[in-house]
Amino acid sequence: MELNIYGCRGSIPSSSPNTVRYGGNTSCYEILVHNKQIILDTGSGFRNLRLQPDRAKIILYSHWHHDHIQGLPFNGDLFMKENSVTICSALATKRPFRNTLQTYFSGGYFPVDIVKHLPNLTFVNFNELQKQLSPEVEVEWLELNHPGGAAGYSIKSFNGKISYLCDNEYEPSQFDELSQFAKDSDIVIWDGMFTDAELPSKKGWGHSSIEQAIEFYNKCNIKKLLIAHHDPGRLDSELDELSSTLPDGIEFAYDGMKVSV
Questions:
Q1: Can you tell me the distance from the alpha carbon of 31 to that of 259, in angstroms, rounded to the nearest whole number?
Q2: Residue 86: what pLDDT?
Q3: In sequence order, what DSSP letters do the residues of 93-148 get, joined into one string?
């Protein structure tokens, strides 16, 4: 089981000499497990991901805010008809979700209706996806605390478990559910867009803090936690300074990061 990170910036791509180390691409994570290529969100980092012809390809969306979908039509591999791709989100059934993406990538918002012009894209409901993946891979989800909604996922096989908990405004009342959901994870990807000092002015924005990541890790049975969804204004130097406060077992995610389970 392998995790590859192609984008872990939040809200909007941030490209400058001061964001090179951690990267400026928005959310895109790849999990390679058995003969499956599971892609979590298609932010701007999706442009740099290669679709693998020898694997079943699945795009699993947490939600459809622009920073999590904006890279979809910029991956050239998607336009190769032989690349069949299954698209799914636990947050909605396939028809309204398909309509949402089609509205975003057509008409007045985008020059090409990619849903209409790409017959190799197949939209499925979450329960259909579970049937396709089992018994080799088990995918579970829970709803996160985010404006408009967001889904957290856990991807589990006989050799590991990865949990994806981005775009969540953490509340203590969530602890029991989140800790049980992430229990025994080899990797948890956590939304650490803010610091505790920044949270009061960002209430309702739908994101958590770096300090909350540390608290969650210390209380839970998980092996490694990656803090992601970095504030687009957070510089490499600032993240480097903050990284010195992180205990063993916690790291800041960065574009190009690879972790094997």
A1: 10
A2: 97
A3: -HHHHHHHHHHHTSTTT-SS-HHHH-TTEEE--HHHHHHHHTTT-EEEEEEES-TT
CB contact set of 125 (below 8 Å; sequence gap of 6+): 88, 93, 94
Contacts of 230 (CB under 8 A, 6+ apart): 8, 9, 10, 22, 192, 193, 239, 252, 253
pLDDT digits (tens, 9 = 90+) for 16-26: 999 999 999 99
Q: Cβ atoms within 10 A of the Cβ of 87, count? A: 22
Beta-bridge mates of residue 89: 61
Retrieve residue 196's tokens.
Answer: 């505790």
Q: DSSP string spanning 39-57?
A: EE--SGGGGGPPPPTTSEE
167 touches 69 (CB < 8 A): no
Q: Is the pTM of this model over 0.85?
A: yes
The Cα 221–Cα 258 span in angstroms is 22
DSSP string, 150-203: EEEEEEEETTEEEEEE-S----GGGHHHHHHHHTT-SEEEEE--B-TTTGGGGT
User: pLDDT, tens digit, for every residue of 9-48?
Assistant: 999 999 999 999 999 999 999 999 989 999 999 999 999 9
Please give the C-alpha separations between residue 107 and each of 9, 96, 103, 133, 247, in angstroms, as whole numbers. 27, 17, 7, 34, 48
- Strand 160-165 and strand 150-157: the pairing is antiparallel
- Write the burial class of residue 119 (CB in 10 Å: 0-12 exposed, 13-18 middle, 19+ buried): exposed
